[in-house]
Amino acid sequence: MMQLDRLDLKLLAELQRDGRLTNNDLSERIGLSPSQCSRRRARLEEDKVIRGYRADIDRQKMGLGLLVVISVTLATHNRDNAKRFARLLADLPEVLEAFSLTGEMDYHLKVATKDLAALSHFVNEVLLPHDSVQHVKTSIVLNVLKDFEGLAVSPDL
Protein backbone atom coordinates (compact mmCIF):
# COMPACT_ATOMS: atom_id res chain seq x y z
CA MET A 1 0.00 0.00 0.00
CA MET A 2 1.22 3.45 -0.90
CA GLN A 3 1.99 5.81 1.98
CA LEU A 4 -0.31 8.82 1.91
CA ASP A 5 0.10 11.74 4.26
CA ARG A 6 -2.61 13.95 5.71
CA LEU A 7 -2.41 16.43 2.81
CA ASP A 8 -2.70 13.64 0.21
CA LEU A 9 -5.83 12.41 1.99
CA LYS A 10 -7.30 15.91 2.10
CA LEU A 11 -6.58 16.34 -1.60
CA LEU A 12 -8.20 12.98 -2.42
CA ALA A 13 -11.27 13.76 -0.32
CA GLU A 14 -11.76 17.08 -2.12
CA LEU A 15 -11.28 15.55 -5.56
CA GLN A 16 -13.80 12.80 -4.75
CA ARG A 17 -16.34 15.49 -3.94
CA ASP A 18 -15.54 17.41 -7.13
CA GLY A 19 -13.07 16.04 -9.67
CA ARG A 20 -13.23 19.30 -11.63
CA LEU A 21 -11.42 21.32 -8.97
CA THR A 22 -8.51 23.35 -10.27
CA ASN A 23 -5.21 23.39 -8.43
CA ASN A 24 -6.07 26.92 -7.28
CA ASP A 25 -9.36 25.66 -5.79
CA LEU A 26 -7.55 22.74 -4.14
CA SER A 27 -4.90 25.02 -2.69
CA GLU A 28 -7.57 27.11 -0.96
CA ARG A 29 -9.31 24.05 0.45
CA ILE A 30 -6.30 22.15 1.77
CA GLY A 31 -3.83 24.91 2.52
CA LEU A 32 -1.08 24.22 -0.03
CA SER A 33 0.17 26.29 -2.94
CA PRO A 34 -1.33 25.52 -6.37
CA SER A 35 2.03 24.18 -7.57
CA GLN A 36 2.26 21.79 -4.59
CA CYS A 37 -1.32 20.63 -5.28
CA SER A 38 -0.41 20.07 -8.92
CA ARG A 39 2.65 17.97 -8.02
CA ARG A 40 0.71 15.89 -5.50
CA ARG A 41 -2.19 15.35 -7.91
CA ALA A 42 0.22 14.33 -10.69
CA ARG A 43 1.98 11.86 -8.36
CA LEU A 44 -1.34 10.36 -7.23
CA GLU A 45 -2.42 10.00 -10.87
CA GLU A 46 0.93 8.51 -11.92
CA ASP A 47 0.82 6.02 -9.03
CA LYS A 48 -2.78 5.11 -10.04
CA VAL A 49 -4.23 6.12 -6.67
CA ILE A 50 -6.42 8.39 -8.79
CA ARG A 51 -7.56 6.08 -11.58
CA GLY A 52 -9.48 8.67 -13.58
CA TYR A 53 -12.18 11.30 -13.62
CA ARG A 54 -15.75 10.83 -14.76
CA ALA A 55 -19.19 12.34 -14.66
CA ASP A 56 -21.75 10.82 -12.28
CA ILE A 57 -24.69 10.23 -14.64
CA ASP A 58 -28.24 9.60 -13.42
CA ARG A 59 -29.15 6.17 -14.85
CA GLN A 60 -32.91 6.83 -14.60
CA LYS A 61 -32.62 10.02 -16.62
CA MET A 62 -30.78 7.94 -19.21
CA GLY A 63 -33.78 5.58 -19.46
CA LEU A 64 -32.33 2.80 -17.31
CA GLY A 65 -35.07 2.63 -14.71
CA LEU A 66 -34.60 -0.96 -13.60
CA LEU A 67 -31.71 -1.84 -11.30
CA VAL A 68 -31.12 -5.54 -10.68
CA VAL A 69 -28.70 -7.70 -8.72
CA ILE A 70 -28.06 -10.94 -10.57
CA SER A 71 -26.40 -13.93 -8.96
CA VAL A 72 -24.64 -16.32 -11.32
CA THR A 73 -23.33 -19.84 -10.82
CA LEU A 74 -20.86 -21.13 -13.38
CA ALA A 75 -21.40 -24.43 -15.19
CA THR A 76 -17.92 -25.65 -14.32
CA HIS A 77 -15.36 -24.26 -11.93
CA ASN A 78 -12.11 -23.91 -13.78
CA ARG A 79 -9.92 -21.06 -14.96
CA ASP A 80 -10.97 -21.23 -18.62
CA ASN A 81 -14.67 -21.07 -17.80
CA ALA A 82 -14.13 -18.12 -15.45
CA LYS A 83 -12.16 -16.35 -18.21
CA ARG A 84 -14.96 -16.96 -20.73
CA PHE A 85 -17.47 -15.48 -18.31
CA ALA A 86 -15.25 -12.47 -17.61
CA ARG A 87 -14.92 -11.85 -21.38
CA LEU A 88 -18.70 -12.00 -21.71
CA LEU A 89 -19.17 -9.41 -18.95
CA ALA A 90 -16.57 -7.07 -20.41
CA ASP A 91 -18.75 -6.57 -23.50
CA LEU A 92 -22.08 -6.04 -21.71
CA PRO A 93 -22.91 -2.37 -21.09
CA GLU A 94 -25.86 -3.38 -18.90
CA VAL A 95 -23.41 -4.70 -16.28
CA LEU A 96 -22.43 -1.78 -14.06
CA GLU A 97 -20.38 -3.82 -11.59
CA ALA A 98 -19.42 -7.47 -11.25
CA PHE A 99 -18.01 -9.32 -8.27
CA SER A 100 -16.47 -12.77 -8.01
CA LEU A 101 -17.52 -14.29 -4.69
CA THR A 102 -16.94 -17.03 -2.20
CA GLY A 103 -19.96 -18.95 -1.01
CA GLU A 104 -23.02 -20.33 -2.76
CA MET A 105 -23.01 -18.09 -5.85
CA ASP A 106 -19.95 -17.47 -8.00
CA TYR A 107 -20.74 -13.91 -9.12
CA HIS A 108 -23.00 -10.98 -8.28
CA LEU A 109 -23.73 -8.54 -11.06
CA LYS A 110 -25.19 -5.06 -10.70
CA VAL A 111 -27.21 -4.54 -13.87
CA ALA A 112 -29.26 -1.63 -15.20
CA THR A 113 -31.88 -2.10 -17.91
CA LYS A 114 -34.66 -0.03 -19.42
CA ASP A 115 -37.50 -2.25 -18.19
CA LEU A 116 -38.59 -5.83 -17.46
CA ALA A 117 -38.60 -6.77 -21.14
CA ALA A 118 -34.97 -5.66 -21.46
CA LEU A 119 -34.08 -7.57 -18.29
CA SER A 120 -35.81 -10.69 -19.63
CA HIS A 121 -33.85 -10.43 -22.87
CA PHE A 122 -30.59 -9.91 -20.99
CA VAL A 123 -31.12 -12.96 -18.77
CA ASN A 124 -32.71 -15.32 -21.31
CA GLU A 125 -30.84 -14.35 -24.47
CA VAL A 126 -27.45 -13.26 -23.16
CA LEU A 127 -26.59 -14.83 -19.80
CA LEU A 128 -28.38 -18.19 -19.75
CA PRO A 129 -27.35 -19.34 -23.24
CA HIS A 130 -23.68 -18.67 -22.54
CA ASP A 131 -21.77 -21.93 -22.15
CA SER A 132 -20.05 -20.77 -18.96
CA VAL A 133 -23.33 -20.17 -17.07
CA GLN A 134 -25.28 -22.82 -15.18
CA HIS A 135 -27.73 -20.84 -13.02
CA VAL A 136 -28.97 -17.25 -12.81
CA LYS A 137 -31.02 -15.68 -10.02
CA THR A 138 -32.33 -12.13 -10.32
CA SER A 139 -33.36 -9.69 -7.59
CA ILE A 140 -34.96 -6.40 -8.60
CA VAL A 141 -33.85 -3.44 -6.50
CA LEU A 142 -36.85 -1.69 -4.94
CA ASN A 143 -34.97 1.24 -3.42
CA VAL A 144 -31.36 2.34 -3.40
CA LEU A 145 -30.58 3.19 0.20
CA LYS A 146 -27.01 4.27 -0.44
CA ASP A 147 -25.05 4.76 -3.63
CA PHE A 148 -21.28 4.73 -3.80
CA GLU A 149 -20.02 8.27 -3.28
CA GLY A 150 -16.34 7.66 -2.73
CA LEU A 151 -13.93 5.95 -0.40
CA ALA A 152 -13.35 6.97 3.18
CA VAL A 153 -10.15 9.00 2.75
CA SER A 154 -10.57 11.46 5.57
CA PRO A 155 -7.29 12.42 7.21
CA ASP A 156 -9.16 12.26 10.53
CA LEU A 157 -9.69 8.48 10.40
UniProtKB/TrEMBL annotation:
The keyword NAD does not apply. SMART domains: HTH_ASNC. Pfam families: AsnC_trans_reg, HTH_24. CDD domains: HTH_ARSR (cd00090). Residues 4-65 form the HTH asnC-type domain. Signal peptide: none annotated. InterPro entries: ArsR-like_HTH, AsnC-type_HTH_dom, Dimeric_a/b-barrel, Tscrpt_reg_AsnC-like, Tscrpt_reg_AsnC/Lrp_C, WH-like_DNA-bd_sf, WH_DNA-bd_sf. Keywords: DNA-binding, Transcription, Transcription regulation. It comes from Thalassospira povalilytica. This is AsnC family transcriptional regulator. It comes from the Bacteria.
